[in-house]
Design goal:
- The complex is a heterodimer.
- Chain A is α/β, with parallel strands linked by helices.
- Chain A is globular and about 30 Å long.
- Chain B has a single domain, classed as 2-Layer Sandwich (Heat Shock Protein 90).
- In chain B, strands 1-2-4-3 form a four-stranded antiparallel beta sheet, covered by helices on one side.
- The longest helix of chain B has 22 residues.
- Chain B starts with 5 loop residues before the first helix and ends in a 7-residue tail after the last strand.
- Classes of the chains: A alpha/beta, B alpha+beta.
- At the A-B interface, helix 2 and helix 3 of A face helix 2 and helix 3 of B.
Chain lengths: 112, 135
């Protein structure tokens, strides 16, 4: 899994590619989020358009990051869900928890 | 297979090859692959508790046009699947774990647990195969 990090105003965007699965991508995601919090960046937009697979461990990490950021006064939102990731979030009703966007500019503006 | 996360990738690759050579629809292969991944992750992490000396036994049988049957057995101490909470109830939505079995049940037609011959958990997953790829 690869994560490219870029900042737009107060929002940190993470472009994620590959798998967010147990033992690899899940740990990397957590580390990137911890690094962002350490840098004072607590508004995160995860661009999942390049994610081919995610499992329950990856989903769990996303939920954990979401709650951690909320405790820090920040927010985590999702961008460019693939149909399969959308389905995975739907079946566990997590789609009702996350703010989801198809347009990056609209997603960034929603943090204001 | 030995209890490591890397071997989950290997098993999933074997499943994908088996499905491809039997012209199983890609969509079916994807969701069965996710169920297999969840089953193996549970066996490695919760069953064998990441003990590299313990093994996970995987048995896959594909009857083209009929069904795909997968058995996963660990060498852990067994567990009661009825004790796993429903991850979709509001109080559990923000828990960071506890979704693996739920996903398996969503993506497979049959999911059953019983005690394995080695004292651990034996999980059986079945997917009915109603169609095949045309090419």
């Amino acid at each position: 899994m690869k994560i490219k990090v870029r900042d737009t105003g107060s929002v940190r965007i993470m472009d994620i590619e590959g798998k967010i699965t147990i033992g690899s991508g899940d740990v990397e995601l957590r580390k990137q989020v911890e690094d962002s919090i350490g840098a004072g960046r607590v508004n995160l937009l995860l661009n999942l358009g390049g994610v081919s697979h995610i499992d329950s461990s990856g989903i769990g990490e996303m939920v954990g990051c979401f709650t951690t950021l909320a405790r820090k006064g920040g927010k985590m939102k999702l961008l460019n869900l693939t149909q399969k990731i959308n389905d995975i979030l739907q079946v566990t009703q997590l789609i009702t928890v996350f703010d989801v966007f198809d347009n990056e500019a609209e997603a960034v503006a929603s943090f204001k | 297979m030995l209890s490591s996360y890397e071997n989950i990738e290997l098993a999933e690759h074997v499943l994908a090859e088996m499905c491809s050579s039997n012209r199983v629809e890609d969509e079916v292969t994807y969701w069965v692959g996710m169920a297999l991944r969840e089953a193996l992750a549970n066996a490695v992490k919760h069953g064998n508790k990441l003990n590299p000396d313990k093994r996970v036994f995987v048995h896959m049988v594909l009857d083209p046009g009929a069904e795909l049957r997968i058995e996963v057995e660990d060498e852990g101490e067994g567990f009661d699947p009825e004790r796993v909470a429903d991850p979709t109830v509001p109080d559990n939505l923000l828990r960071s774990n506890g979704r693996g079995i739920y996903y398996m049940r969503q993506f497979m037609d049959e999911v059953s647990f019983r005690s394995g011959e080695r004292g651990g958990t034996r999980l059986e997953l079945v997917k009915k195969l109603n169609g095949r790829r045309t090419q």
